[in-house]
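During data preparation, a discrete fold description was generated, and the record follows.
___
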Amino acid sequence: MTSLVARQIGIPGRLQPADLDVQAGELVALVGPNGGGKTSLLRVLARIENASGVVAIDGEDLDLAPLSRRRRLLSFLPASRDVIWPIAPRDVIALGLDGPNPARVDELIGLLELGSLADRPVNRLSTGERARVLLARALVGNPKILLLDEPLSNLDPYWVLRILSILEIAAHSGQSVLVALHDLGQLPRFGRALLIADGQVQMDEAPASLMASERFEQVFRIQATQGGWEVRRQADPQSSP
């Protein structure tokens, strides 16, 4: 079943019009160089910006859905981890709900091991701790679509692996999960990958096919080695005749 259907979505000067279909249960990575358009694509899908095109979730036009309904359809996690409010993490998490549901908030606090932090001022937590709080807020409402901008940034290795596992479980439960990603070493954990550069979707492939492509190396200016990656060698300039 197709969960998300986007047609001719774009932002003038930042993201060229594109179509995108995402099936229920897909775990999709968005990769590309800085400034290539990953965040713009997520923001357009979330209808945060005055962008062109149409986004529908299970047949519902997102632009016509009231705020309370949108929370059930999708959740957007921005890349910024800044929180200026001196309120408790449990209250931040609850902002992702339509109404009081302490049991669900406690479930997310347990899942992301936030128990010892749950009643401290959130603006006094570390960046990685705030990242977990904000992810909990994105997850708490069980939306059909998760749009996550760099959810693995500022995390130690344990939490990178734990959150990837949490996202895999979300996908297995039927949620569609789109994740902007910089750590190319995590791409094999995803079922599908979009390469976004120069304001457009350049490729839409299985991760292994994407990483093996010439276009991937050209866009990132790197090449695979037995130990990982190295800077791609540039062709020697030819002498003038």
In short: The mean pLDDT is 91. Residues 69 and 98 are 9 Å apart (CA to CA). The helical segments are 38-45, 67-73, 89-94, 102-111, 127-139, 157-172, 207-211, 214-220.
